[in-house]
Design goal:
Elements: H1 2-25, H2 31-62, H3 88-112, H4 121-131, H5 134-143, H6 145-167, H7 170-173, H8 189-192, E1 210-215, E2 231-238, E3 241-246, E4 257-261, E5 264-266, E6 269-273, E7 276-279, H9 287-290, E8 310-315, E9 322-329, E10 338-344, E11 349-350, E12 355-357, E13 374-375, E14 379-381, E15 387-391, E16 401-405, E17 426-429, E18 446-448, H10 491-496, E19 502-505, E20 511-516, E21 525-529, E22 532-537, E23 540-544, E24 555-559, E25 566-571, E26 577-581, E27 584-588, E28 601-603
Antiparallel strand pairs: 1-2, 2-8, 3-4, 4-7, 5-6, 6-8, 9-10, 10-12, 11-13, 14-18, 15-16, 16-17, 19-20, 19-28, 20-21, 21-22, 22-23, 24-25, 25-28, 26-27
Helix pairs in contact: 3-4, 3-6, 5-6
Transmembrane segments: 6-24, 31-59
Keywords: Membrane, Transmembrane, Transmembrane helix
InterPro entries: Vps62
């Protein structure tokens, strides 16, 4: 029936097409043209029919599947991949999985069997918060993600014991925070909150890191020797920025945004930025970034801004006396305009970085200037050029400019240090030109000379501004609360402990070689001086043959937190502190702070 229907439709179509052809050709009188018309007419109809048939065939056969074929032979087994490698994108998930597995396994091992379930949403969210935090991401590169994961697991093992001993399995199997539970003994979270990592991922990070820098004066005296000409500089790391603007609309091939560290007052001293920050190539132009002030690009907590840190300073500083225009973007065809200026420092001062404005007027000078210059006597000129941060190529300006610095063009957090010239930038005329002329001292990068002062003393390590203080929006970086000096609670011990450290006595500069004892309690070292080990026998310290099995030779390294890598050596058995006295080493109680300067070592 279907075939007859198709034939009927085809016959009717042919009759209609012939009728159309006769109607069109009835006005043709020339026989040759008449024959030619019908040839072309028939060819056109046949071609159209072929197209319809081929299209229908394609649509019909496209999804048509034949019977399955025979299975092919199995492939060879691939080579075993590298072990211990973890892409940064996966480490957060691995951390969370590993820690939650540890807690569940511990719960089952306490006699709960397979029925034990970790239902506490607070615990789960706490683990997720810590493993996905900025702190976790920033610390992962130091010793590798897996080492950091193991560190977090070790802490959670201690925490599990504290919580379980105070509440049994009921706390883990129920939903609620610490305040929702009636503890059998003291609240274990009072102890948990003493650890640095408890606060990872909890929001903005504030802590004043202030270094009081007392430089030698021209007569060689230090301030405590009665010098009246000493240069006193105080510096603080800061990651709190104000948005200056960006190059949107300039037509440049890449984007750049400009930021300036925010001034703040701490203990009566005003801290000023020393230059602007350029972040490029940058996509951070929307309102949430422009309004943000905190230097982290982690999305969940609303802290938007450049992933950078710089220093701000107070003390014997001067504002620029003028500015040299290095480059400008200006065209009457576009509303966007911005200008890059080089500060002109007063005599005997130097500017550490360039600045940007978005009007043709230069920045203010003197005490009203947005930045400050430092004394040239305490500045060290870097003899290297920076990396390219951004180029104006594509902006169609008569000349192009390249912004150079030592901060990488990435989303990773970049701390402030001498090696990257505090993440400040310089502008160099030219296409992708990163070469700063050796003769141009005003265009060079500078760092502060940290050999002339105690560069690591951090005011407020334990007494930082509380997070609920109205001043917390003006202060630098850190954890909430401040990092602990006690190695048990402090992540500083994780960052600094080494297998074979060299410890330099702060006063005598004597070198001591430390060796971590394998398969022993963590942070257990033997200390070697000229192939003899420090050994505590009875009531005195002696040098004897090294034997890591002798309890008298086992010491712990305790970081003070006062400055980078500063530590004390604590006898593992007596808990007394190693000190240098009368050309000999001795042990004193930890509470003995007399001549405390003889107790300090610096880990190399």
């Amino acid at each position: 029936m279907e075939t007859i229907y198709i034939i009927f439709i085809a016959v009717i179509s042919i009759i209609i097409l012939i009728g159309i052809g006769l109607e069109v050709s009835k006005g043709i009188d020339d026989f040759v043209i008449y024959i030619l018309f019908w040839m072309l007419y028939i060819i056109t109809i046949v071609t159209f029919i072929n197209i319809v048939l081929v299209g229908n065939y394609y649509l019909t056969m496209r999804n048509k599947q034949g019977p399955p074929g025979l299975p092919g032979p199995s492939g060879d087994i691939g080579n075993k991949g590298d072990t211990g490698l973890c892409d940064p994108a996966c480490r957060d998930g691995i951390c969370e999985t590993q820690v939650l597995k540890l807690i569940t396994d511990e719960l089952k091992s306490r006699g709960q069997g397979v029925s034990a379930n970790l239902n506490n949403i607070y615990i789960k969210s706490k683990v997720r918060q810590m493993c996905g935090s900025d702190e976790f991401k920033q610390l992962s590169p130091y010793n590798g993600p897996y080492n950091l994961i193991n560190y977090v697991k070790d802490i959670w093992k201690l925490w599990f014991d504290l919580i379980y001993n105070a509440g049994g399995s009921a706390y883990f199997e129920n939903v609620g925070a610490e305040s929702d539970f009636d503890w059998l003994t003291n609240n274990p979270f009072d102890e948990l909150k003493k650890y640095d990592i408890f606060y990872w991922g909890m929001g903005k990070q504030y802590r004043p890191l202030v270094s009081e820098s007392c430089y030698l004066s021209s007569n060689g005296n230090t301030p405590n020797q009665g010098s009246t000409n000493s240069i006193i500089i105080k510096t603080s790391n800061s990651n709190i920025f104000e948005s200056i603007g960006d190059d949107s609309g300039s037509g440049a091939s890449n984007n750049v945004s400009f930021w300036r560290a925010k001034q703040f007052t701490y203990k009566g001293a005003v801290y000023y930025p020393l230059g602007d920050i350029a972040v490029g190539p940058s996509r951070y132009r929307d309102a949430e970034y422009v309004n943000g002030k905190v230097g982290t690009i982690t999305m969940p907590y609303g802290n938007k801004g450049p992933a950078r840190e710089t220093i701000i300073a107070s003390g014997d500083l001067e504002g620029p006396i003028g500015y040299e225009l290095i480059w400008k973007y200006y065209t009457r065809y576009r509303a966007k305009q911005f200008y890059i200026w080089r500060p002109i420092a007063p005599s005997n001062y130097v500017a550490l970085g360039d600045v940007v404005t978005f009007t043709s007027s230069p920045p203010l000078t003197g005490d009203s200037a947005p930045i400050r210059c430092v004394p040239s006597s305490i500045a060290i000129r870097k003899r290297t050029d920076g990396n390219k941060l951004w180029s104006s190529i594509g902006s169609n300006m008569p000349t192009n400019v390249t912004l150079v610095g030592f901060a990488p063009n990435s989303g990773s957090y970049v701390t402030s240090s001498e090696t990257n010239a505090y993440n400040l930038f310089r502008a160099v005329i030219g296409n992708n030109n990163t070469n700063i002329p050796a003769s141009d001292v005003n265009a060079s990068f500078y760092t502060l000379d940290n050999t002339k002062y105690d560069s690591g003393y951090q005011i407020g390590m334990d007494t930082g501004i509380p997070s609920d203080s109205p001043e917390d929006n003006r202060v630098g970086k850190g954890y909430i609360p401040s990092p602990k000096k006690d190695a048990k609670y402090s992540v500083m011990s994780y960052l600094n402990l080494k297998t074979n450290p060299v410890l330099v006595h702060s006063f005598t500069k004597l070198n001591i070689n430390g060796k971590l004892i394998p398969n022993a309690i963590s942070n257990a070292y033997v200390l070697n001086v000229n192939n003899s080990c420090i050994n505590y026998e009875g009531v005195e310290v002696k040098m004897s043959e090294c034997d890591e099995l002798k309890t008298g030779q086992i010491f712990s390294i305790i970081f003070t937190g006062n400055k980078k890598n500063e530590c004390k050596l604590q006898h593992h058995e007596t808990k007394n502190i190693l000190t240098y006295k009368n050309s000999l080493f001795t042990l004193v109680p930890e509470s003995d702070t007399r001549n405390i300067q003889y107790q300090y070592f610096i880990m190399q």
